[in-house]
């Protein structure tokens, strides 16, 4: 039988009827929150990033702005821009119930910063957390056929950059420490959700869910995830359609987790969103590597290695998506 | 000083003990990452093991398939560093 599948192209993920897709998400949000979860509104953490902005706007359109509580959850390492953009977004969509909950003291109580900095200092012995900036990143090419490993990069006040491959114990301690951030935010969101009898809206997109770029019981802890099925470029398409402020759309996606500036590409994805979306779609829908390679300007071998990288990420992070086993 | 065969056996024993895989499955030239025997965390723990067992430090630049893809590659890598 002749295949009716669309040939692979750079437009393959473009949403043709954007209005219908938005309406479907809005209708589903209403049904999920009011009928399935039996909650009367939505609590959402907003960071000034594209995903949380789109989720907040969709929630305001679904429930009405008065039934949405938007919460900024900064801590000492958060960028000041985040707060300003989050405020602008809430104003634009008429969400008046906006709160700022600074979680720095809670994180201090957990020893988040101390535990993280101790691990960094074991690898970079002259690390001074008072003045140096630090981040973790993957330096290998996404098309490498070895699994990725993280390096720690420290930036001194004079601009000197020191980078080392992270030994496993230090890598795990740094990640476990910084995960206090997402888990503390989740606790605060549920405090407000329970106080108001609202549901918590989760903001991960399809890549974050499927590649495991979220913290279990942290930003992965939510009642509904309205954009969990959407590719990042589709989230941008929706953002433009519903009128997310241009500064938010133009901003490079960051993790806002480490003291040094860090894009999500450096930290985890290893390639730009536009390419990742398309190659992921190709992999997920069994498009042959040579067909995808021709469109993306990459060799068949590169695409095969990237497919393997995706497969590895989904397999390695399956634990994050699992419910407790009993 | 361990012989080449002893070193290979030490590496194989480590992989088997950490993955519970069948001893028959892991030959000297088995592609341990491509075949999914070890994942990304497995690579990090392997680097730690090589450091503890053979006093081998691995840098960012050395993290390439040629040095880690099989027991043979790992052996060549550690021999070059000893």
TrEMBL record, chain A:
Matches recorded under Pfam families: NAD_synthase
Ranges where the NAD/GMP synthase domain occurs: 23-109, 135-315
Transmembrane segments: 42-63
GO molecular function: NAD+ synthase activity
E.C. no: 6.3.1.5
Pathway(s) per entry: Cofactor biosynthesis; NAD(+) biosynthesis
UniProt key word Lyase: no
Coiled coil stretches, renumbered: none
InterPro entries reported for this sequence: NAD/GMP_synthase, NAD_synthase, Rossmann-like_a/b/a_fold
Reactions accelerated catalytically: deamido-NAD(+) + NH4(+) + ATP = AMP + diphosphate + NAD(+) + H(+)
Keywords assigned by UniProt, alphabetized: ATP-binding, Ligase, Membrane, NAD, Nucleotide-binding, Transmembrane, Transmembrane helix
SUPFAM superfamilies: Adenine nucleotide alpha hydrolases-like
EC class: ligase
Family per record: Belongs to the NAD synthetase family.
NCBIfam families assigned to the protein according to its UniProt record, in alphabetical order: nadE (TIGR00552), PRK00876.1 (NF002048)
Protein name per Swiss-Prot or TrEMBL: NH(3)-dependent NAD(+) synthetase
Organism: Winogradskyella litoriviva
Automatic annotation (TrEMBL), chain B:
InterPro entries: ACP-like_sf, PP-bd_ACP
Domain Carrier residues, every copy: 2-82
Record-linked PROSITE patterns: CARRIER
Top-rank taxon: Bacteria
Protein name in UniProt: Acyl carrier protein
Organism, scientific name: Winogradskyella litoriviva
